[in-house]
What does this fold into?
Amino acid sequence: MLSPDAPAALTRLSFRTLLAALLALMALALPARADKASQPIPADTLAKMAAKGTHAAAPILLRAYKRESEIELWKRNGAGRYVPIKTYPICRWSGQLGPKTRTGDRQVPEGFYTVAKSQMNPNSRYYLSFDIGYPNAYDRAHGATGSAIMVHGICSSMGCFAMTDQVAGELFAVAREAFAGGQGAFQFQAFPFRMTAANMARHRTDPNMPFWRQLKEGSDRFEATGEEPVVGVTAGRYAFAPSKDPAKEAAAQALHRDENARIAEIVEEGAAAVRTTYSDGGQHAFWAHRIRQGFPVGDVSRPEALAYAGQEVVLIAARRKPAPPAAMPESLWAAVIGPGTPFYPVRAAYRAPFEGGPTPLFASTARRYEETLPRLLRAALDDGLAPPAFADPQPVVERVAQR
It folds into this structure.
């Protein structure tokens, strides 16, 4: 027969048993969590590092591209230059091309960010993650709001770079080993698209273009020097410190100058201008294919929106620049303006001041005469030369707008 105190004793015993069981379960879970955050870098990635003259403990830099849905891993090699190691497909990002400006806009940030060791989260609800450091000084200067923008696992994004668990685990391991090797923080560069001259020309009418030109300056600097750009903010704009190496600084300025010239050339050649629109962000084609095959990636945020990702609206149609008239064959040149022809005296009189070599003052004129006149004559003979336009048929403002 139980004593009057027996129910209370049994209650205390049950509570202690339950508590012990919970503690045991927690003890089992903690090693698993620790193991998840301490997984080694895959062997094939280590081999890629070795092939580029670098190693696991060397500093890293990450570059993200929204339009292409990719994140690149760069590592500093023995010569002190960052080299590309691997490209990871992004499983999901949200919003549109363009910077993040406020809490809840679902925008994935664009700009230059810093990731310190304290921003690594081994206990993330999304497997593993790290905070990219939004908002940075530029964002704050423009009144941007929001926080906790991550690179994390699974395939769901509300302003983050969602990478799936396996990829997030590898990026976490790569960053962890760089911190262990002595790197205090690494740079995370986020771009709307690969900052090529062709892409800049193609998106030239986008309202974000003034901001994107600032990003391109930093991107060009990194590509030319192989150094992590030293980034600041001056008068609300990104500012980049010059390289300490004069040769690298000259290379950075030359590349940026050449890229700007190339953009202008592409526009002049008649490239189309577009705006890329999204229902809500995009996804790399690799993951879209794997998901259709049944590969598990976790929850996919707004899967219906992915059908309308990356729709291009043409704002200015491409136009083909007419080819220059073909050069006149030498036989036709001689027949039209050579000795014995009606035009020869004109040609001889024109060239008289240049006998013995044109003076520097007229050198360019003589060269243009020799190079262009035959083509103009050939075009006239072929009825391929339009009559001269004595009035501009289109206002200057409209012509500029077509570029």
